[in-house]
Amino acid sequence: MRSKKSNIFYFCYQIYETLLMLLLVLIIIILPTQVFCRFVLNHSLTWPDEISPYILAWITFLGSFIALKTEQHASFDLMVNKLSGKVKYFFSLIKNLVISIFLFVLFYYSLPLVIVKWPDHIYTLPISKGFLYSAVSVGALLMLYISSFEVIKNIKNIFKKRERKEVEGSRMKL
């Protein structure tokens, strides 16, 4: 049975996944509509050109969070996968620490931009630029949450004592 925190996180994860799918559907509808209006009707809409980069930013950062959560991010782990035991966890710890530091810096420096841009609106729709720029902050914070748990998990695995069966099994192989 899952803990209460786990259930809340799973529920939020489902919301983010649904939001990502809706944004993908939205961009799939918006861009062909703009192309149709521009080249067939000879009347270009102004708002799709302005809103689509922001939607792509939200798709990128929500998608990165989901990829990090499901461990589907591209990584170069060919050599690390050949390692075993604590050495493998140590390299994984270093990787996750670097990711966490990068995400913290990204989050820290994106917040002032969101705050400064919040009063501004895009020209064609009544949407705050701060809300649109917050994709970076929200995505970085969500990914930092996941990578922090990975750091903690790696530290626990490094300092975890080997179980008795593992020790006996290694003796038998010798």
Catalogue the unreliable spans.
Answer: 167-174
How much strand content do the residues show? under 5%
Q: Find the structural class using helix and strand composition.
A: mainly alpha
Task: Summarize the biggest pleated sheet.
Answer: none
Give the H and E element order: HHHHHH
- Rg over CA atoms, rounded to whole Å, is 22 Å
Helix content: over 70%
Describe this structure in words.
The chain has one domain. It is built from 6 helices and no strands. Helices cover 79% and strands 0% of the residues. It is elongated, with a radius of gyration of 22 Å. It is mainly alpha-helical and 174 residues long. The longest helix has 36 residues, at 4-39.
